Every structure is written in structure tokens, then in C-alpha cells.
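Recap slide: Dephospho-CoA kinase, sequence and predicted structure.
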Amino acid sequence: MNKPWILGLTGGIGSGKSAVAAHFSDLGVHLVDADQAARWVVEPGRPALAKIAEHFGSDVLQADGQLDRAALRQRIFENADERRWLESLLHPLIGQEISQYLARAESPYAILVSPLLVESGQHRLTQRVLLVDAPEAMQIQRTMQRDTVPEEQVQAILKVQASREERLKHAHDVLLNDRGLDWLRAEVERLHNFYLTLRGGQP
């Protein structure tokens, strides 16, 4: 069997990449979620968590020894140097975790879902990139509704994420998600059928 090629799936917050990923998964495509890999590498007992606690102090841990994400997020959002320190610790570990999961794929192609595909350099693990795009006003609206957070917080997250121009530069395919779910599913099916004809992610 040919080794599956890897499609990177990305998009800004509130663009709808989770809905797109879920439908690819329903179609039988092997998915790896970088956010999940990021959670696995900081589970209690894993070396990364000990290093984070040592660096930031025990107030970034919850009473049960799990990582207190909110406390850590606050620390790194306020301080770019701390964010870079954390990224240089976690990105290589997350990369290893992702590669191990992708290696288990049985489908003709596999998908790496990552909001920071471009920023983290994870796009280098892929042969092709699909960008889920949406108008910014729609991204903000969706995220505020989904996470019940104020607009300022969504704006702050958007600022940290790669710009639309930056993402478009890396994208081979763009799915503009500004209509209903049925239309989105039909687009995913159209892309899936196209991807099945590709060898190594290229026509």
C-alpha cells in the first residue's frame, strides 16, 4: 500500500475548520488534531509538564496536577518572551506526537488539523494545505457565540494567529465558509473526491 500523503487543514478561529474536519472524518479520512497532540504532551507524568511547572512555578498547575491552561494562557499572552519559551519547548514535542499519529493512517491521505499550521511550521509535515476561510466579522461572531467570550478576547486571538494573507500564501486550496452547513458538507465531499485522485498531494 502507498504511504498516505498528508493534507494540512487550517483556518483562523471561528472559520469552521472543526466542522470541515468532522466531515472529512465521517468520510473515513484519518485525522490528527494538533490541538489534541498539544494536550497529550502536557499530561501529568509527561516531561513537558514538569518543565513548564519548573519554569512558571506551581501556580500554573491545578490541585490535581493537571495544567491550568487559563493561568498559563494569561502568563504567555502578557509576555512574548514567555510565549516563545513555551513554544520552543512544545513545538518539537507536538511535532513528534503528530508524526507518530500520522504514521498510523490507513486512508489514501491523512489530515493534520492545526490552527497554527503556518505559524508553528507544521505545514512542513504536509504535502498540501487546505485553508478554511471566513470573513473576519463572521469569525468574531461565531467565536463569541461558541465560547461566550467578549469581542476583545477574540480580537486578541486573531492578532496572534497568522494573517489571512500569510495563510493564503501557503494554501493550495481555499474553502470559503460563509454559507450553511449543507453547502459546506458538499464542498468537503467535492474536495475529498478530488484528493482521492492525487498522488502525493499533487495533481
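Residues 45 and 137 are 41 Å apart (CA to CA).
The first helix runs from residue 17 to 26.
(End of recap.)
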